[in-house]
């Protein structure tokens, strides 16, 4: 049982965690912390939180667990701000989509007697804010924890229990390894979706509004380009090295495809699409 859970950033990820833990009967009280009163009031009226505040230090006072779910570039600044107000033995964990820099910075900022555990739930939608959250978001999904040699084992076990109570399967990864994998399978697809919509949205085809002709395929492929721009700006910048390598790989793949189209290489195109189809069909 968590006596007092503080959620900093009561949006899709933080709001859904609070809802899931409430449903599991695992938390006695939830305090929501954020910048805008409108979102906090929404969180209160939806029953996600018992109380809300814009003052992070006041909000975390007496909390046994603090979950930080703000955009990745703001996470360590939040830890720096709340550090003096944390109760002894408090566990601070996060849901940020990038791990190496966050874990390094937060481990350095966490005061003695408190514990930081890096985490990343592999679940989400393109919607933001408290109103977008729901209790079943994590059910049957993975949550990755990224411990280091500095991670307290008891704190890690508690964070693992918490994610299991939401219905998530927990696994572990080294933070840098996490960032290289997610550059490929999450961050690159978002960049590709944004770039594709950008290119098509600004394409000039005899003055037509080409986006008015879009159908299922375009909509399926580009759904994630509706995700929050600030969140994805932060992820792109914070995972810059791994993401640039992924973008280079993708650019090479696109250039190869272009070459085969340009040459009228029927066999080469069939091969290219067959290999990609096999990979896609193999995803379970
Ligand atoms: P969200 O719905 O936009 O929620 C973020 C919350 O943080 C908002 O309630 C916002 O409220 C608050 N916030 C924004 N900037 C802040 C700042 N500088 N300082 C303090 N509070 C701030 O976003 P989300 O989708 O829940 O994402 C939250 C975190 O989860 C991010 O780190 C993201 O990388 C990670 N994540 C997202 C997904 C996904 O698919 N969405 C999946 C896994 C992990 P106010 O603006 O009112 O303060």
Structure, explained:
The structure is a single chain. The protein contains eleven helices and nine strands. The chain is of the alpha/beta class and 284 residues long. It has two domains: 2-173, NAD(P)-binding Rossmann-like Domain (Rossmann fold), CATH 3.40.50.720; 177-281, 6-phosphogluconate dehydrogenase C-terminal fold (Orthogonal Bundle). The strands form two sheets. Strands 3-2-1-4-5-6 form a six-stranded parallel beta sheet, sandwiched between helices. Helix 6 links the parallel strand 8 and strand 9 (169-172). The longest helix is centred in the middle third of the chain and has 27 residues, at 175-201. The model has no long low-confidence stretch (mean pLDDT 97). NADP nicotinamide-adenine-dinucleotide phosphate is lined by residues 9-14, 34-36, 39, 69-72, 74, 95-97, 120-121, 124, 128-129, 228, 231, 235.
Please render the helix and strand layout as text.
Blueprint: E1 2-8, H1 12-23, E2 27-33, H2 37-45, E3 51-53, H3 56-60, E4 65-68, H4 72-82, E5 91-94, H5 100-109, E6 115-117, E7 119-122, E8 142-145, H6 153-165, E9 169-172, H7 175-201, H8 216-222, H9 229-238, H10 240-263, H11 266-281
Helix pairs in contact: 4-5, 7-10
Query: Helix and strand string, N-terminal first?
Result: EHEHEHEHEHEEEHEHHHHH
Whole-number tally of structural domains: 2
The coarse silhouette is: elongated
The averaged pLDDT comes out at 97
Fraction of residues in β-strands: 5-15%
Radius of gyration: 21 Å
Give the number of helices.
11
Span between N and C termini? 34 Å
Quantity of strands, as a count: 9
The helix content is 40-55%
CATH class of the largest domain: Alpha Beta
Bound molecule types = NADP nicotinamide-adenine-dinucleotide phosphate
Any idea what the CATH superfamily of the largest domain is called?
A: NAD(P)-binding Rossmann-like Domain
Named at the architecture level, the CATH assignment of the largest domain is: 3-Layer(aba) Sandwich
Give the spatial strand order of the biggest sheet: 3-2-1-4-5-6
Low-confidence stretches: none
CATH topology of the largest domain: Rossmann fold
Q: Supply the helix-strand structural class.
A: alpha/beta
Please give the largest β-sheet: 6 strands, parallel
């Amino acid at each position: 049982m968590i006596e007092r859970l503080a959620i900093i950033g009561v949006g899709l990820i933080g709001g859904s965690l609070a809802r899931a833990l409430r449903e599991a009967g695992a938390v006695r009280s939830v305090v929501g912390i954020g910048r805008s009163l409108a979102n906090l009031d929404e969180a209160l009226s939806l029953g996600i939180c018992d109380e809300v505040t814009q003052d992070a230090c006041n909000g975390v006072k007496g909390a046994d667990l603090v979950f930080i779910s703000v955009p990745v570039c703001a996470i360590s600044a939040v830890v720096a701000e709340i550090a003096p107000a944390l109760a002894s033995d408090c566990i601070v964990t996060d849901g940020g989509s990038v791990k190496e820099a966050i874990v390094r910075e937060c481990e350095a900022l966490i005061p003695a007697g408190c514990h930081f555990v890096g985490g990343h739930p592999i679940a989400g939608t393109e919607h933001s804010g408290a109103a977008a959250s729901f209790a079943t978001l994590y059910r049957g999904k993975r949550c990755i924890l990224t411990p280091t040699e500095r991670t307290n084992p008891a704190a890690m076990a508690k964070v693992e229990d918490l994610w299991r109570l939401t219905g998530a399967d927990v696994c572990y990864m080294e933070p840098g390894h996490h960032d290289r994998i997610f550059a490929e399978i999450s961050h690159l697809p978002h960049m590709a979706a944004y770039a594709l919509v950008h290119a098509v949205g600004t394409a000039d085809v005899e003055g037509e509004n080409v986006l008015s002709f879009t159908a299922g395929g375009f909509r399926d492929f580009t759904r994630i380009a509706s995700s929050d721009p600030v969140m994805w700006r932060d992820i792109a910048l914070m995972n810059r090295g791994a993401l640039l390598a992924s973008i280079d790989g993708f650019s090479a793949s696109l250039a190869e495809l272009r070459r085969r189209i340009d040459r009228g290489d029927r066999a080469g195109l069939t091969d290219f699409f067959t290999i990609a189809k096999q990979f896609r069909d193999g995803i379970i």
